[in-house]
Design brief:
With 140 residues, the protein is of the alpha+beta class. It is 29% helix and 35% strand.
């Protein structure tokens, strides 16, 4: 059921964000909470998050196959220290400064130049996801 809920939220959020000129970065669906992270050219404003939240609430409330049970919907920007866990998030971050913490203790900082399902490229460093402990934005 969780995967179905995530797929539904991702579909609705992607469509609504696109209509507003925003980019869907990530979706998290947990019991009682739905989080939607979006970005836009030059960032995203509180008003844009509020507007998207209203659109998402309307879309979810109007569907019979909506989420089971009560939930709280949170819409926000990914934040400057966002961990890039999914392929979608890593692709969104291409061109941004990142910090790659490797399982062997090394850290690679630089610009994310490529991202795929099995590896990321930070500047000239190809890093397999199996060697990656954490990848996060490093825009500060």
């Amino acid at each position: 059921m969780k995967k179905d809920a995530e797929t539904l939220v991702e579909t609705l959020a992607s469509q609504a964000a696109g209509e507003m000129g925003l980019i869907l970065v990530a979706v998290e669906v947990r019991p009682g909470i739905v989080r939607v992270f979006v970005d836009g050219e030059g960032g995203v404003t509180v008003r844009e998050c509020e507007a998207l939240s209203r659109k998402m609430n309307e879309a979810l409330d109007s569907r019979e196959d909506s989420l089971p049970g009560p939930y709280v919907l949170e819409v926000s920007s990914p934040g400057l220290d966002r961990v890039l866990a999914s392929t979608r998030e890593r692709r969104w971050a291409i061109g941004k400064r990142v910090r790659a913490s490797l399982r062997d203790g090394h850290v690679v900082e630089g610009r994310l130049t490529a991202a795929g399902p099995d590896l990321v490229v930070v500047d000239d460093h190809e890093i397999g996801l199996d060697a990656l402990a954490k990848l996060s934005l490093n825009e500060v």
